[in-house]
Amino acid sequence: MTWRTMTTWVLLVAAIASGWMLWRQRAPETAPAKAQFRPDYVLNDLELIALDDHGREAFTLRAPHLTRDPSAKSMDIQTPLFMIPPSPGKAGTPWAVRSATAWVAPKGDEIRLRGQVKADSQDAQGRPVNITTEELNVFPNTKRATSTAKVAMTQPGFILNGRGLDAQLDAKRIVLQSDVKARYERTAR
Fold first, then answer.
1. How many beta carbons lie within 10 A of that of residue 102, not counting itself?
2. In terms of Cα–Cα distance, which of 68, 152, 144 is closest to 117?
């Protein structure tokens, strides 16, 4: 056997061994991604009135698109408008709450609004109240709203900014949790 033949055999064995080692160390194949759920129904251009456990209106929803997840029994909504009335026997105006998307719990007792959330109503004196944030959780049965995101509350002549919110919607009582800053502005008379 010549030295050239011997070198060829050694290089061939080294190439095979290197290829085999690289093949064994490759990343394991990942399982295909789980397919998204197929909704059991889809509603377009809808108006829906949800009732609470006592048969009273909990909220009214208007939206261009709603899908319902059959396994979780929750709803996903695009660009919704929720009208949340005051509790029976309570005076006041309803809250109009808009957002980019929303998720509604199976029993309708929790609504998670995400993206460009804006809530509008009036205080006891009839002045407009406006809340803006990126996320808001609304509990229509208890007329309560919470958030952990940055929040701005605006009334004529008054702007309040902070982080975190706990609101009693019936009482129009809004508490910002931290980093609160207030700014007063003159209003036209």
1. 26
2. 152
Q: For residue 29, give both structure tokens.
A: 């194949």
What is the token pair recorded at 178?
Answer: 């931290």
For residues 165 and 133, the answer to whether their CB atoms sit within 8 Å is yes
Cα separation of 107 and 48, whole Å?
A: 14
In the block, residue with structure tokens 């007063």: 184
What pTM does this model have? 0.74
Task: Write down the domain spans for the chain.
Answer: 41-184
What's the CATH class of domain 41-184? mainly beta
Which residues sit opposite 129 in a β-bridge? 121
Return all residues near 81 (Cβ < 8 A) that are at least 6 apart: 61, 62, 63, 96, 97, 98
The per-residue DSSP string of 98-135 comes to E-SEEEE-TTSS-EEEEEEEEEEEE-TTS-EEEEEEEE
Q: What is the pLDDT of residues 25-70, one digit of tens each?
A: 776 655 455 446 688 889 899 998 988 888 888 889 999 999 998 8
